[in-house]
Amino acid sequence: MAISLEPVTKVSKELKELLNKAIAREIQVSVQYMWQHVQVRGVKAVAVQDKFKSTAIDEMKHAEKIAERLWYLGETPTTKPTPIVVGDSLQEFLALDVTAEVEAVEMYKQIIELATAEKDFTTAHLFREILEEEEEHHDLFTTMLEEV
Fold it and tell me: Looking at domain 13-147, which of 1.10.630.10, 1.20.1260.10, 3.40.50.11290, 1.20.120.160 is its CATH number?
């Protein structure tokens, strides 16, 4: 009896490309938030720098989970981030971060919809979990931005 080495779940090229875009985005924001953690200055820095660091770590964990799923689906995960823009001030950091999280929420809803349509319920479930965390990050950054 021959054993198949193919993944049980078959998905479209479009879904695999979206997963790679998600990985590139997660790598980008993990670096962006970590450098903001390093570069933030001033009295308010003490209140926010650990939030940048912990969010950067969350984003790297997302990249890892997505990469593992993509690898299982038979595709090689990207190692290249989308363009990284750190900013020059706390207000600019947070404005960039809010935008990044909005983009993630929109992309991840699209991935969930496509994965569900393709009956890839594992990918849809993974992105529902990540989406919840991205919405928490969005809330964190918008709240911090209100205080700047």
Answer: 1.20.1260.10
